[in-house]
């Protein structure tokens, strides 16, 4: 459960549900046959989460925040794998790719 208002929900092709709240917390949940199981909690950002975006195969998640940071998570292994400090407050994040591309790019 989140302690504050959930502002973003992402469902991946890998059967994970990721929720983000206005206090900067991100939680990973695994969709089971009849239940949803809590998996991992991250205190990801100091400010509210402005967007959550998963790539097309559901293996990566990006979060952006009003604290001028971007974080990338490995969804399947529940691990933060990259973070960046930005010079601006991002308002939207989206993974982009062409059919057949092995690598997705992240647009802010």
UniProtKB/TrEMBL annotation:
The keyword Repeat does not apply. It holds the Pfam family WD40. Keywords: WD repeat. Gene3D superfamilies: YVTN repeat-like/Quinoprotein amine dehydrogenase. SMART domains: WD40 (SM00320). WD repeats lie at residues 1-30, 42-83. This is Uncharacterized protein. It comes from Timema cristinae.
């Amino acid at each position: 459960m989140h302690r504050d208002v959930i502002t973003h929900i992402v469902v991946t092709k890998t059967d994970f549900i990721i929720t983000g709240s206005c206090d900067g917390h991100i939680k990973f949940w695994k969709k089971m046959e009849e239940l949803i199981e809590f998996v991992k909690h991250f205190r990801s950002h100091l400010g509210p989460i402005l967007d959550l975006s998963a790539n097309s195969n559901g293996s990566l998640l990006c979060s952006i925040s009003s604290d001028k940071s971007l974080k990338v998570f490995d969804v399947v292994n529940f691990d933060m794998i990259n973070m960046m400090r930005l010079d601006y407050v991002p308002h939207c994040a989206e993974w982009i790719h062409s059919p057949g591309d092995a690598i997705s790019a992240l647009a802010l």
